[in-house]
Amino acid sequence: MQTAELKELEKVAIRAVTLAERIILSHFDSNLAVEWKPDNTPVTIADKGAEEVLRQVFAQETPEFGVIGEEFGIENPDAECKWIFDPIDGTKSFIRGVPLFGTLIGLYKKNEPLVSIVNLPAQKKRLHAVKNGGAFLGETRVQVSDVAKMDKSLVLSGTVNTFDDRGLSAEFEKYRRASALYRGWGDCYGYYLVATGRAEAMVDPIVSLWDIAAFPLLLSEAGGSFSLLNGETDLFDDGGKPLHSIYEGYSAVATNGKVHKAVLDSFAKVN
Q: Could you tell me which CATH number the domain at 150-266 has?
């Protein structure tokens, strides 16, 4: 696709995420009911309402595209182009009034990422990118940091429990202790910090497709790197089929590029 066409699709995604933001913020920091899914993760009326509006906009503007969303699954799975989204990434933060959650959207043509949106409603911040167009925070172009050594780096992760669950406790300790500073600012906020040059690395050992689909393009356009813990860089095969289970079948490493090998080396036993 040409840049002009991608910019139009980016506008579609921004309109969708803006409508979703209104729903999300109308419920944020309120006494809303929380349901618990079979996998023991929370879902609320805000998650469902936000995903519904995302689907409505995409169905209206790009009816030939497929969609993959966390709450309501897959539509048109054989479509060449697919929107992949998480209406609220960080629902556990959201239900506790912690503002480190966001809406994630990635558009793919087969295995090629084309558009990326990371919207942080409570912080009024929005990262967006199109292929070969750079990464932007609002109207300001962003770039990853130029820190080149782990012992000078701020490194991040999601919950510690997932490292234990994958048998990576020792590797996780190596990752943390090699850095200048470690913090658990997880979910989409951690990737936001890497893409904007505020942190050097973010690692998640267990994630679903919708948790990370927005990040490969965003990190690339910001000058950074994205891969799975085993070094794989693609989320889909050449025909556009997910390479792993869309539910918790992936891992994620996002860095400024300069420390990417060092991070992967910390988790060298992953294959």
A: 3.40.190.80
Tokens of 183: 């913090």
For 192-243, the pLDDT digits (tens) are 999 999 999 999 999 999 999 999 999 999 999 999 999 999 999 999 999 9
For 3-141, which CATH superfamily applies?
Fructose-1,6-Bisphosphatase, subunit A, domain 1 (3.30.540.10)
What are the boundaries of each domain within the chain? 3-141, 150-266
Helix (H) or strand (E) holding 137: strand 135-137
Q: What φ, ψ does residue 246 adopt, rounded to 5°?
A: -70, -20
Contact 266, 251 (CB under 8 A): no
Q: What is the pLDDT of residues 82-112, one digit of tens each?
A: 999 999 999 999 999 999 999 999 999 999 9
Assess contact for 28 and 121: CB atoms under 8 A. yes
d(CA 251, CA 166): 11
